Amino acid sequence: MLDRRPSPDDLVDHLVRSTALQRGEAARVVLDVLAYFDETTEEFVRRRHRELQSGGAVNAEIFERIAAELPHRAVAPPELSLRQLRRVVYG
Length: 91
Prior knowledge:
This protein is mainly alpha-helical. The chain has helices at about 10-20, 25-40, 40-55, 60-70, 80-90. Helix 1 (about 10-20) crosses helix 2. It is elongated and about 45 Å long.
């Protein structure tokens, strides 16, 4: 079976044609988006914890918010309890 997914180069070409982005800028955007969606559940939880904590949120709020955000990821991970989320961050 042939892989019909567009390559990142196809997406870069599309962005250059359809936006005001230069090729280098479009390539950086595509790479950033791919990296974002390649993030594991654990990496996402740790990153969001750092972001929310640096914004002044406390852990009780942070873990509730992360638990609410996880099901909306591009590929939703299994549901994690608040305890499991804390273990991802603190081990």
